[in-house]
Predict the structure.
Amino acid sequence: MSYDRPPGLPIVDAKTPAVLVPARPVTPDEVAGLCAEVRALLEAAPGAGAVVVVEVVGPGPPGLGTVDLLARLHLTARRTRGGRIRLRDPAPALRALLDLVGLRFEMEGQVEQREPALRVQEEVEPGEPAV
């Protein structure tokens, strides 16, 4: 059986990504459960390459336990239909710690910090026309 496509653009249901908010501090026993939760969220999402947003909030500075959790969640997401995780509003200390250990994640909620533009410093001889 065939049918005619309606004119115009197809209707797309835009969805916001699933959000995971792990309580901190996360014990090693809870990591497997959070990985299973990420796997379930990605399997329920339509299509491959879905995103799960992880909010890393909590008291105190982040430690290597947080880095280990994020690395395991990232690996689980990549193994589940090519999914990925994105960090929402990571603390500057967490960003620095992730840079230190060499892990790169997509981040949202913070403007990328850039160095200010340098001013051009030229030597001008007296009597030369302005360029």
About this structure: The CA atoms of residues 25 and 121 lie 50 Å apart.
